[in-house]
Amino acid sequence: MVRITEQLIRKKSEHNELIIGTLEELSLHQEDIERIEHIGHWCRELKILLLQSNLIPRLENLNRLKKLQYLNVAINNIERIENLEALEALQKLDLTLNFIGELTSVESLRANYNLHELFLTGNPCTDYPGYREYVIIALPQLAHLDGKEITRSDRLLAAKQFPTLRERIVQLEALHKIERDEQRVRVQQSIEEQEASVRDLPDDDERRATTFWQQKSEHCPETRIQMAKFSRRAKGQAAAGGKNLDQPDERKRTRRLFAECGRPYSLNEPRVNFEFRDEPDRFELDLHVYKYLDTSLVEVDAQPNYVRVTIKGKVFQLALKQDIQTDRSTCQRSQTTGHMLIVMPKLNPERIVAPAEEKRTSQVNQSQATGGGLKGPVDIRSICGGSSQTKQPRINEDEVPDLI
């Protein structure tokens, strides 16, 4: 029997950082759950609860979910609608493909005044004559039934037929209960005969599986439980067999962090992106750790010639070209992006050489300080001559008048 445990709910609440007290949506579908329990105590803030494709025989232990708006229990073993009166915020209820034969049990939903959508497709009660008309009158707050809108004309026609309709449905329910009791006994005998026929065969024998899946069976809760148990047993055997087959491969894929000579390897098992910067005086590793990963699941180890980051058991290791100062190395993580920055000062930092431009500037400043260089303005027109320069005309001395 599969139980609802705290570990299972936390596993399904990864989107809420594994916090179940404030969880608003929970999906527990296809878990072979056979009973609803603990959810009402642990997750009182739930608005959406998905329990489809399980083996739940009864609706129970949900009365504390005052904020629940959508409940999906499709494809289960439910035979009666009950214990939902306290869900005052319930707006949508999905009971598709169950075994509900007691149609009058829908009257227990009258107190759910916010209920607007109801799905009963695939239940035995949907085969009763006047099924739709009865549900429309029994639940006047409904706006949709089985995905079809309820119109005003539907309500008027159903109101005319309702007085004689309920008596007929009660009779059909009594017949269904008798047939259900007979079916329960008949299916139980069939299951015992089938188990006796393959009792001497080993569990991993193919004949056992062939006999089980080829036999004719009735559609009922007992058959669904038997099929689920057989499938669970087959999966367990396959997993056990697969584990034995995979052992040699695991030996081949043994993790190696160092070479035989002691040189560290570089590997990235968690497959996270990273940026590595080699500065003259330090190494910087920017590791793109997942944003919503809890820091307690990350371990950082800085050694003289390598740095190792373990993320949820998977190793990220990077070999370094130079030794670092482990006692001065720091590690910080961003609260917005989740990235992790590891700064590792070098043990023997490189000598920083000034650029050539800075050298020239320093030389000019030095020459000016010692008194060298040019002094005063410079006439650039007389630096070099050429044909481009205009020649002044020669003065005729005879034309110059005498001085008085």
TrEMBL record:
List the InterPro entries hit by this protein, alphabetically: CS_DNAAF11_C (IPR056496), Leu-rich_rpt (IPR001611), LRR_dom_sf (IPR032675)
Q: Spell out the residue ranges making up region: Disordered.
A: 356-404
What do the Gene Ontology cellular component annotations say? cilium; cytoplasm
**Alphabetic keyword roster:** Cell projection, Cilium, Cytoplasm, Leucine-rich repeat, Repeat
What's a BP term from Gene Ontology annotated to this protein? outer dynein arm assembly
Q: Where in the cell is it found?
A: Cell projection, Cilium; Cytoplasm
Superkingdom of the organism of origin? Eukaryota
Query: Which positions fall inside the Dynein axonemal assembly factor 11-like CS domain?
Result: 237-346
Say which family it is in. Answer: Belongs to the tilB family.
Q: Name the PANTHER family on file.
A: CILIA- AND FLAGELLA-ASSOCIATED PROTEIN 410-RELATED, LEUCINE RICH REPEAT PROTEIN
* Record protein name field: U2A'/phosphoprotein 32 family A C-terminal domain-containing protein
Q: What is the source species?
A: Anopheles coluzzii
Lineage of the organism: Eukaryota, Metazoa, Ecdysozoa, Arthropoda, Hexapoda
